[in-house]
User: What shape does this take?
Amino acid sequence: MAGSLQTKLKENTYPGRGIVIGRSSDGKKAVTAYFIMGRSTNSRNRIFVTEGEGIRTQAYDESLLVDPSLIIYAPVRVLGDTTIVTNGDQTDTIYEGLQKGLTFEQSLRSRRFEPDGPNFTPRISGIMEVKDGGYAYSLSILKSNEGREESCVRFTYAYDEPVAGEGHFIHTYQQDGDPLPSFAGEPEPVEIPDDIDAFTKMIWESLNEDNKVSLFVRYIDIESGKYETRIVNKHEEEK
Assistant: This one.
């Protein structure tokens, strides 16, 4: 049974980066949300900006940018009827793999978790396929095997004919910690409403005030393929 995303977010001060994919309660929209959080100045110094049909991260203050390798990337890209959402530059890996005829899972075979020991942040990824009135989505996580740098474990979850009003939530960390404990278990079923603005507001207000950085939400009409997008950046709110 789908649970409350609001509750899950409010009870966790540091889920890290998170992806939600599902279907609106009226059954008409394919829905996704992606958020980033940060504990360091470098991680918090980011905003989401539009790039083509997707988005990319950008330093809010270029003078504070220390290491762009794991924080500057395109979280969302669109390839035809497929929307790709990830927490790193594996967005490009999936995009290029799909262009070559590889599957979502095959495209990620060349990637592992992030090289940021001792955390070894998982790579979380999702794809949404909206075509001819049909909709399906998949989620993936690549993570270290109990904190071992040499061993990567790979899980892919595919959801055909998603249920109206239900989505699945996957995030990088179980909770705050040092080192940060990787997400464990299957993506969590959560409720998805019809209203994009209400959903955006709920997620943003439920994320920890000190650690939240940016949020992206998109609702795609399953029949027409047209979409609405919302982007919230903490730095721009504080102006």
About this structure: Residues 196-206 form the longest helix (11 residues). Residues 5-237 form a domain with the Glutamine Phosphoribosylpyrophosphate, subunit 1, domain 1 fold (CATH 3.60.20.20). The first strand starts at residue 18 and ends at 23. The chain is about 15% helix and 40% strand.
